[in-house]
Amino acid sequence: MTKSATPLSKQEKEFHDLLLLRGVEDTRGFALMRALMASARMLEVVADHDLQETGLSMPRFRLLVWLFLDEKRGNTEGISPSVLSHHQHISKNTVSSLLASLEEQGLIERTLSSEDKRSFKIRLTKSGRTLIQATLPKHNAALTHVFATLNADEQKNLLKILGKLRESLIEQIKHCELDSYKTS
């Protein structure tokens, strides 16, 4: 059994035993993936909870941040929904649903594209811009608090390890035929 810092839960033990029965002795790959994914899901729950008072979810917040950053880079026309979909790594249907709710909240506006009158560009409204500017510092403070369980050196090491993993995954994705998932 691969040693772990914390004891295995009943389900993890059952899964580990199943792998052993199938001849898999080193279960670190599954253990690391499950721990990373579970932590990411729980982090999303905590982050969503923090954003509740703003009326945003993490997916909607990410779209607003992307629009805000693109605006800061000088894009005054906005971004097409398909470009948002690509950069956020979510389906066009999901982006459409998120944009509809953001538009209902008055945080974004759709304008006809100057290049193609059949398509739209999405940009922040004044209310959306104001909300993001007010929310970013508060949300960052809440996330910093989440990671306060790790000391500064542990946080630095975690960032280094996750960066190394991300770079490796980017290289692996380049060798897969995944047209729907680009790393840029």
Summarize this structure briefly.
With 184 residues, the chain is mainly alpha-helical. It is built from 7 helices and 2 strands. The chain has a domain at 28-149: Arc Repressor Mutant, subunit A, CATH 1.10.10.
Q: Under CATH, the topology of the domain at 28-149 is which?
A: Arc Repressor Mutant, subunit A
Secondary-structure element pattern, one letter each? HHHHHEEHH
Number of helices: 7
Give the termini separation: 38 Å
Helical content stands at 55-70%
Number of strands: 2
- In the sheet with the most strands, the strands line up as 1-2
Strand content range: 5-15%
Largest beta sheet, briefly? 2 strands, antiparallel
CATH class of the domain at 28-149: Mainly Alpha
Rg, nearest Å? 20 Å
CATH homologous superfamily title of the domain at 28-149: Winged helix-like DNA-binding domain superfamily/Winged helix DNA-binding domain
Low-confidence stretches: none
Mean pLDDT: 88
Shape: globular
The helix/strand class is mainly alpha
Q: Architecture of the domain at 28-149, CATH level 2?
A: Orthogonal Bundle
